[in-house]
Inverse folding.
């Protein structure tokens, strides 16, 4: 498992879980709390899509399969922790949340 206290550019971790990628490779997923819903930053996109929006939201950070600090991906934003968890459950079968870490 990664250190739940380690933040990333998207926000501070509020929940952590694990699952088995391809049924056998331990993989970590975290939900991050953010005060900004990040836009695309692309000037060719519509202004409402390109611009950052202030406000509480949550992102899902997928760690690389098998661990490590490089790579991985982030999805979101989601309006609530519960919405982010539903996304995780639909994307990765058998995620087990660490109860002591799961808070909003």
């Amino acid at each position: 498992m990664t250190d739940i206290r380690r933040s990333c550019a998207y926000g501070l971790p509020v929940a952590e879980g694990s699952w088995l990628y391809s049924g056998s490779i331990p993989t970590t997923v975290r939900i991050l709390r953010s005060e900004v819903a990040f836009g695309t930053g692309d000037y060719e996109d519509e202004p409402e899509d390109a611009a950052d929006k202030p406000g509480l939201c949550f992102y899902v950070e997928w760690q690389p399969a098998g661990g490590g600090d490089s790579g991985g991906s982030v999805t979101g934003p989601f309006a609530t922790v519960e919405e982010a968890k539903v996304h995780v459950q639909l994307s990765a079968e058998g995620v087990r949340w660490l109860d002591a870490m799961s808070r909003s």
